Amino acid sequence: xxxxxxxxxxxxxxxxxxxxxxxxxxxxxxxxxxxxxxxxxxxxxxxxxxxxxxxxxxxxxxxxxxxxxxxxxxxxxxxxxxxxxxxxxxxxxxxxxxxxxxxxxxxxxxxxxxxxxxxxxxxxxxxxxxxxxxxxxxxxxxxxxxxxxxxxxxxxxxxxxxxxxxxxxxxxxxxxxxxxxxxxxxxxxxxxxxxxxxxxxxxxxxxxxxxxxxxxxxxxxxxxxxxxxxxxxxxxxxxxxxxxxxxxxxxxxxxxxxxxxxxxxxxxxxxxxxxxxxxxxxxxxxxxxxxxxxxxxxxxxxxxxxxxxxxxxxxxxxxxxxxxxxx
Length: 327
Fold this sequence. Notes:
Blueprint: E1 32-36, E2 40-41, H1 53-66, E3 72-78, E4 81-86, H2 88-96, E5 101-107, H3 112-127, H4 134-147, H5 151-164, H6 179-186, H7 190-199, H8 204-211, H9 217-223, H10 228-240, H11 247-258, H12 264-280, H13 291-298, H14 303-321
């Protein structure tokens, strides 16, 4: 994060900020209704992890005692079938609490971009950008950079979500297509924005490895330049062989991909050969002789003479250990 840069405000869990009333304009679009949870499915491209542990348990207990106090937002996708946009954690906790219905505001006729924006902005309000996993941050940045074409609509949705939480809307207009604007909004450098945009191009298997710190971010950025099919080849390879990919090896794959000469067999052969070369390389470890030993045995000796003495001493030692030396 850049020093002195303005940062997007971090909002803590809105479930803890229980409003005294919903303060919603009751137009046909914004009426709160109790929907059967059985009629609601998660958003089809939901990339954000659900609450776990104490946070989930606290929400379940709160819903058992008070119900869901902040309405969810769903998108009607068919007759009596809805897709959750804002409220995946509330729905999950409600199911655990044994609830059959959940308060919801039904949206109809949203574009894919508008629906996705509800999902993104809700997660930003609930946890804040810095609390998210790296792959989740990448999804947010990618959404704001490339998928949302109507900035005015984004502002309207942000205001609506804040109003549902009983808070004043203070949303700044930004040019979402500018990498610099995104960097300013989130307090990041332009290079970090660029890396996050690359990370969002990873297949889920590599996003999971990255979030679990099983693979380095720089390696993941390089992997992102491979096609989806090529990434799947690499994923299968890593599941089969206990080899940790390094930046040099993935860069070689990237170059072959650019030249349209990469095949699954070629990928396996290249990485296996690189691993064999690493195994053949001898590693050396230097050691320091304690000062007391040096002064006792080697202080008056030249360096080559010391090496000769140490070598002979080691030969005698290991011969004795093997039972071949004099006793």
